[in-house]
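Project outcomes to date are best conveyed with an example. Our students and postdoctoral researchers have been running inverse folding experiments weekly, and each run begins with a structure described purely in tokens. The record below, which covers 161 residues, was selected by the lab manager from last quarter's runs and is presented without edits.
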């Protein structure tokens, strides 16, 4: 757990409306997957994704600090691999969320992407030992309901079990 506090594991996130809201709800969703699966693996990270402006694509991001030398990611991703002992297939899900305020009414599935899209954008390969074919992997959202219970993390913090 202490490894999560290293500077190498820090990226600036928008607070209100993202880190303290939608992203926190997504993190609760991932933790709760352990109630439905025997094994859950989650990888999170920053992305710098292009936006179309006119007929061209640009990557625009804020730089903070004094002097300004910390790039603020445009998006953050979560890639999830889950497995039930009594099922042969792995469940896999990949989500990319913009690093900005997100309305709680936005369905989680609207941020779902093929894992290959996130791999390409991040320059990484995830779960490379898992063969990605029908029968070996299934979409996470076909195995569990991919909906978020917003502010559940606040309730759990106030009422720990």
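After processing, the design step wrote out the following sequence:
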């Amino acid at each position: 757990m202490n490894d999560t506090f290293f500077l190498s594991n820090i990226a600036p996130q928008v607070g209100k409306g993202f880190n303290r809201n939608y992203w926190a709800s997504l993190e609760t969703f991932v933790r709760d997957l352990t109630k439905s699966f025997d094994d859950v693996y989650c990888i999170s990270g920053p992305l710098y994704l292009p936006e179309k402006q006119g007929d061209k694509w640009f990557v625009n991001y804020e730089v903070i600090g004094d002097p300004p030398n910390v790039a603020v990611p445009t998006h953050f991703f979560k890639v999830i691999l889950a497995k039930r002992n009594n099922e042969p297939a792995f469940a896999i899900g990949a989500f990319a969320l913009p690093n900005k305020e997100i309305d709680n009414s936005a369905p989680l599935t609207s941020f779902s992407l093929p894992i290959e899209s996130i791999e390409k954008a991040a320059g990484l390969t995830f779960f490379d030992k898992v063969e990605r074919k029908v029968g070996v992997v299934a979409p996470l959202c076909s195995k569990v309901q991919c909906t978020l219970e917003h502010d559940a993390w606040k309730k759990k913090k106030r009422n720990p079990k």
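Residues 38 and 99 are 31 Å apart (CA to CA). The two ends are 20 Å apart (CA to CA). The training component of this project remains on track.
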